[in-house]
Every structure is written in structure tokens, then in C-alpha cells.
Amino acid sequence: PASVRRTAQTQGDGRVDPADQLADHLKFARDFMDQEDLHTPINHGGGQSTNGGNLQVFSKEFFDAQMQVIIEERVPVYAAGLGNPGPWMAELRYNGTRVMAVVGAVRHAIQVAAIGLDAIVAQGHDAGGHNSPVGAMALIPQVVDAVGNIPVLGAGGIGDGRGVAAAMMLGAAGGWIGTAFLAAEESGIAQHQKQALVDGTEEGTVISRSVTGKPARIIRSKWTDAWEQADIQPLPMPYQGMVSGPVMAAAGAAHRADINPGFAGQGMGLIKSIRPAADILREIVETAEASLSRATYFI
User: Fold this and answer.
1) Which helix (H) or strand (E) holds 100?
2) How many other CB atoms sit within 10 Å of the CB of residue 289?
3) What Pfam families does the annotation carry (predicted)?
4) Domain residue extents for the chain
């Protein structure tokens, strides 16, 4: 929007408005791209494709439009990842949609439980992407205790059936697994990102605000390292996405796993190969059943 470039102003608490810091951060990104010989990809229409860099992509209107599509298409299962789905519950319920919410704190679980969800996902610090400051081992049982009869799915670092069994022993009804399925043949991420998951270890991720502006667990890269060494801090969401979007798009087009390897949880080290999702699921179920059966030996 035209209002992004203006004389620097401070907010009520004395902080500089993120919009007024944007120019310096965009220069940081351009300098990084020059250093890494990255070039903004050209889309099919002949223009530049940035995969971000537009505040409208992060606007309330954009998210409202997404929700409208979910309702119009009568999506059977919907999980809210960064907010309370309460305003949409009446329409979702009318469609018969099963509704879940991902939470990272007990207080958030209590808030969303009040709107009548079908399940709550308790996602700990081990998880990829935006997560919680609390580890899954501590978070899951506390959320279970707080929400009564609502089923809870444990998430964060769960990469195989043993993790699912462990979550169930903590009171969860099951596991919520993301990273393991990113390495599936059917996954929509780029091939170089899938290979980064196979090559990664449990120490290969970092919590960084460098991509979205919110703390998120991502595979360590030259981009995350650059921000750790920089004398400026990432901007809050949605502004940081305007900074990182062109970089991530260019790195993706160039298949640069050293710059855009993607998000991943600490269970990444359990991934040994790229294979069909059906094989991954089958092994998870079999391993979970075997793990739960062994639990009786300790009684």
C-alpha cells in the first residue's frame, strides 16, 4: 500500500512503527540475494514472482476470503493454526465440518474449548513451524487436564509410532504428525526440501523469526544464520514476510536447500527416505500398536 513509505513514527509505547523500518530490511534482503546470486523468478504472466512481499496476502480480508472458500466447498475437516475459529463455527457446523484448533498454551486451550471443538491439538516446542515455548512432554498432559472430555492430539517432535504411543500415555487421544509426512512422495513441498528432511538431524532446526516474523522452527540455513549475525532484528508479522518472500521464492526457484530448506520439527532426524504416505502411515500405526503393547511389560 502507498502508506508503507512515510516519515518514521513511534507507536504509543515508544517503538518505531514496523512499516517505517521496512526499507532497511528490504535492502538487507536485496544485499543477501546479491551475495548469494539469487534472482527474482519470473511467473507465467511475465512478471516477477515473489511468493510474498505483499501486505494484502496477510490481511484480514485475505484470511476471511480463505475461510469463505472453506465454507463454500464444505471442507470436511478444518484446523485453525493461528487463531480462534469461533466466528466461523456456526457456518462450519452447518456444513458438518469437523473443527480443530492448534494451541501452544493451556490458556489458549481453555479459550477454544469453550466454542465446542471436535478436537484440540496441543503442539509443543519440538514442532516445526509456529509452535509453543513449552515442550510437548509438559504441554500435552496439562492441556488434557484443562479441556475435559474434548479429545486432545499431541504434537511436536512426534515422528513415528513410538511418539504417538507416548502422547497417548500422556492422555492424548492420538498424535498430530507433520514433518514426517512432508517427506512423503505426495507432499507438495519441493524435492530439494524433501531431501533436506532426509539429510537433517535432530539438531538441524532453529527457532527463528526470519521468515514469517513470528518465532517458528525451521531448518537452519544461510538465511537464518544471516539474521542471527545481523545488527537488525526481523520485523513482526506480516512485515517480515514482505522481506523474506522474494528471497524464499528465488531460493526455491534455484533449488537452494541451503537457503530455503523449509520448516521442520525436531523429529526430522527420524526421516530416512522419501516414500509414499501410505507406507509412512502404515509404519506409524504398526509401531504405535507395538509400543502400546510393550507398555504392559512395565506394570
Assistant:
1) strand 98-103
2) 13
3) NMO
4) 2-7+19-294
What's the chain's length in residues? 299
Instruction: Per-residue pLDDT tens, the chain, 299 aa: give them.
Output: 222 333 345 455 557 788 899 999 999 999 999 999 999 886 545 444 444 445 555 567 888 899 999 999 999 999 998 788 999 999 999 999 999 999 999 999 999 999 999 999 999 999 999 999 999 999 999 999 999 999 999 999 999 999 999 999 999 999 999 999 999 999 999 999 999 999 999 999 999 999 999 999 999 999 999 999 998 899 999 899 999 999 999 999 999 999 999 999 999 999 999 999 999 999 999 999 999 999 888 87
Whole-model pTM: value is 0.87
In angstroms, the CA 175 to CA 276 distance is 19
Q: CB–CB of 129/217 below 8 Å?
A: yes
Write down the residue that cell numbers 520485523 correspond to. 235
Cβ contacts of 97 within 8 Å, gap of 6 or more: 70, 74, 75, 76, 77, 78
